[in-house]
Amino acid sequence: MDLAAPICVVGAGQSGILAAARMRELGFENIDILEAGAQLGGYCQTVEVDGDIYDFQAHLVIQQAFGADMAGTAIDELLREHPVPTKTEALYFVGRSDSGKPQLAIPPHFVPLFQTLTPEQTIAQLVEAWHIIERAVRNRHAPGMSGLAFDRIPGETWETYRARHAPLVGEVLQGLVIYANMRRPRQPAETIININAHISGHVSQLAKLVLSLYPAQKEALLAQMPPSLVAQLSSHRPVSLSFQAGFISFLRRIADDHRLTVTVNSQVTGIEPVRPEGVRVTSIVDGEQRSAIYSRVVVTARPAQIRNIFPEGAIHELFAERNCPRAWTRSYLIRAGEELIDFPRRSDSVDPLGFWVIDPYGSYTDSDPEQAMHRITAANKQHPGPYWICFSNSDTSISDAQAWSLAKDSLFLFHDPELVAETIAEWPAYPSAAAVRDGWFDRVTDIQGRHGIYFVGEILSGPTAECISSFVRDVIPLWFGPTDTA
Fold this sequence. Notes:
By secondary structure, the chain is of the alpha/beta class. The chain has 3 domains: about 5-45 and about 250-325 and about 430-480, FAD/NAD(P)-binding domain; about 45-85 and about 325-425, no CATH class; about 110-230. The protein has helices spanning about 15-25, 75-80, 110-115, 120-140, 160-165, 165-180, 195-215, 220-225, 225-235, 245-255, 305-310, 315-320, 400-410, 435, 440-445, 460, 465-480; strands at about 5-10, 30-35, 45-50, 50-55, 60, 85-90, 90-95, 100-105, 240-245, 260-265, 265-275, 280-285, 290-295, 295-300, 330-335, 355, 375-380, 385-395, 420-425, 455. Strands 8-7-16-17-18-15-19 form a 7-stranded mixed β-sheet. A 5-stranded parallel β-sheet has the order 10-2-1-14-20, with helices on one face. Strands 5-9-6 form a 3-stranded antiparallel β-sheet. A hairpin with a 3-residue loop joins strand 11 (about 265-275) and strand 12 (about 280-285). The longest helix is centred in the first third of the chain and has 20 residues, at about 120-140.
């Protein structure tokens, strides 16, 4: 293998930077990274207010774990190899009380089900869900080209999964899928990609809430739980971490440590094989058209961008909108004059810092058109003070002013929030249920490396830091390692 052969990485978001870093570790010397934006980071954006950096889009590293069992995760390895200052964040579910005011609460989606179960039945079913997830993580069933198989029954859908499991088990796992924007009609269960430590954190948060509902039975309910779940309940490890200098600072640290150079303002307009030379990449850099030949190209763009780069042919067809439907998210930076809920305080600070989910099942999905209504689904306080980041699903047919008017109505945490800044981006795309049933993942696998062109990114790995980093950690050596004969 010629380690000096030129390689092009399209996109300098998380997938692009991590893929290039992994290739550098394998010894490749000549790596060009082309980024259409003005800086590395991809869809992650930041804004600075009063000296603090606020992250839109990606910024959380989920760290709540099964104790020592999560050691060796890809994101944990990256943080050890490329240390940057981080801070603890916490997760709370928030709902409306009967009076309409916000309160810490069990996610409303679970309330009717909890009312049908005894405390013992509730814990037993949470434990069953915990074991399924724990086994999936330990066996490294995901992320990967074929997604996650909770029970390895090919072709099983969420409907049949729910029918053969206890009600709360199916509800827990389906809820996580909705949170990950993955719920599709008859979505095959084995295609769910978002398996990571956040899922286990979700289960333990529910267990904590159940224990808080039945204080007199706490010891008996704890006795029902496996040691790994009890350890997580009592662990002082954070539910999640964020980056004091912003998520992009973490990517910059990785790029600097691996001597990676990113060419920004570089819009790739075409990729085509030119045998026997390699792959021609055409781009517009600062308004000037350029062309270069590479031995291999790694594409980290989203489906809409891929369709533009490959205007026809098999790749365009594979990433066509009917296979990879688009969804959008708006994010807002707001100033809150008054907070209507008293969140738990960190022991070392007078200010609560954390990630508070307002409506954990409000992400847009094509299984419920009503969920396309524009509303805030989560609010996050990344620094002490009055500023919050709010996330929403979106409909691009409405104006910015209309979107904020609708979103503001769902911000029941605050009186009269003031909009400071906003951003809109394409939400991580996923293959439709029809495409998955038609073998979409297998078709992607078949084209990987054809003519020296490869694909990585959220649509294959899932959107979280652990999903993306572990996917890249696994596939880049497979494609570019010593045994590769492509």
